[in-house]
Each structure stands twice: as structure tokens, then as C-alpha cells.
Write a structure and sequence with these properties.
The chain has about 240 residues and is α+β, with helices and mostly antiparallel strands. About 30% of the residues lie in helices and about 15% in strands.
């Protein structure tokens, strides 16, 4: 289930996105200090926009980045442009930008368009973390912000703590076996139809609960847990990891 903050991030800001894509860097990019932002040779290809969902959160007044004008993700099968051949139409790429683009630029695709996708991921994280940190981490946990790990490592390292915390979270669904980590967890931006169940050996119920308030709840996954199932809670984050 999509989060309302991400639905707000679908507000169309085409002019702003294209302006960011079309500017060659002047060294003032807050997401990659000293990095140049090369111009794409053509307009970005529209991508899927977020679907609205119910939830308790109210978005901040800052206008969010627009995922609707994202450049195409460079995950297509086929030969990739060698890293030593990756160059923008104008300006230059920084070392970190080149590292991010390595093995990500399909032959024939403008590398600046691929870079724009990663930069938009950083923009979304920056917007979400200002609104609600748990929502930002939850969006990584659920995969609603894809490519977050690589984008953060290469383009916006100030958000690394979000990625690190997300690695220990749980999205809605059923989790079992070695994937279970004992500890205290809090729900991130749950819906008003949030429920959970923890079972031990032989399907014995160890804990369960539900909440219709839309407010964060805490649960404890014990050492004896075998399965953990969550519905409508969006994501669960390890307690004590926020900061």
C-alpha cells in the first residue's frame, strides 16, 4: 500500500524538473557538493506516478519532486556503455557520479538522463525526511523508492543512515525464518486498518494486535518467533534507530 507522502510527491512540477535536468552544474548542488549536473540531450521520459492512498499524514508546504517526469530507469537488459565512454553532452561528471553510472547506462542512452533518475531519488528522500523521517525510511523498506541504496551511496551520502535503518525494517507481508530479527519495532505511517500477528513453533500465536487510529504502534518480536505477518501497517522500523 502506497504512503500518502509519496502520493503528494506525484504533484506535477515539470518545469522545475526539466530545469534541474537542463542545468550544467555550477557547484551548488546540495545533494552532491561540488558535483556538476550535466544537461540531458533531450526531455525526460515520463514515468509512472504515485497512486493516492489513505493515511494520517499531512504533507509539508514544500513542493515535492515530481516522479512523473523521471528519466527511464537504466535497468533494461542489453549492453551497457563502458564507464570510460560515459560523458555528458556538456560539463563533466564527478567521480561519484561516474561510479553511480557504471553499468547503468544502456548503449545509446544519454547518461545525464540516467543520472537524473538517481538525483530525483535523492530529491524524494530529502523531501520525505523533512516531512517525516519514519516515512522516508519506510519508503525504502517497502521499495516505493527504488534504487535508494545506490543513489544514496553515489549521490547523496547524507541520507546513508536512512538506508542503513531500512535494512533492518519489515514491509507489510509475511516474514519467517532467518529473516526475523528479535527486537522492538514501531510502525511507520500505518493506515487505519493496521494489524499484525507473531507466531512461534507449530503456529502458536505469541502476539497479535490491530489499530484503527493511524498512529504508530510498537511491537516486540521475541527470540522464539517463527513468523511475523503485517497488514496495512506499511512498514516496521527497529526501535531506537531513529536519529
Amino acid at each position: 500500500m502506497r504512503n500518502p507522502f509519496l502520493a503528494c510527491a506525484a504533484v506535477v512540477l515539470t518545469a522545475a524538473a526539466l530545469a534541474a535536468c537542463g542545468s550544467s552544474a555550477d557547484g551548488n548542488d546540495p545533494e552532491a557538493a561540488g558535483a556538476q549536473r550535466p544537461a540531458a540531450s533531450g526531455p525526460a521520459v515520463p514515468g509512472p506516478s504515485a497512486t493516492p492512498a489513505t493515511g494520517p499524514a499531512t504533507p509539508p508546504t514544500e513542493e515535492p519532486p515530481d516522479p512523473g517526469v523521471s528519466a527511464p530507469a537504466a535497468t533494461a537488459e542489453g549492453p551497457k556503455t563502458p564507464v570510460d565512454e560515459i560523458a555528458p553532452a556538456t560539463g563533466t561528471f564527478t567521480k561519484k557520479q561516474k561510479e553511480y553510472l557504471k553499468d547503468r547506462v544502456p548503449k545509446g542512452m544519454d547518461p545525464a538522463a540516467v543520472l537524473q533518475t538517481g538525483q530525483e531519488t535523492c530529491d524524494k528522500l530529502r523531501y520525505l525526511v523533512k516531512a517525516d523521517r519514519d516515512t522516508a525510511v519506510g519508503a525504502i523498506v517497502t521499495g516505493e523508492i527504488p534504487d535508494a541504496k545506490d543513489a544514496v551511496a553515489g549521490l547523496c551520502t547524507q541520507h546513508q543512515a536512512l538506508v542503513d535503518e531500512a535494512a533492518y525494517g519489515y514491509p507489510d507481508g509475511k516474514h519467517s525464518g532467518k529473516k526475523l530479527r528479535p527486537g522492538v519495532y514501531r510502525s511507520a505511517s500505518p493506515t487505519t486498518d493496521c494489524s499484525w500477528q507473531i507466531e512461534g513453533a507449530g503456529g502458536k500465536e505469541l502476539a497479535s494486535g490491530a489499530s484503527d487510529t493511524g498512529k504508530s504502534r510498537k511491537i516486540t518480536i521475541p527470540d522464539s518467533a517463527v513468523t511475523f505477518t503485517s497488514t496495512g501497517c506499511y512498514a516496521w522500523l527497529p526501535e531506537g534507530a531513529a536519529g
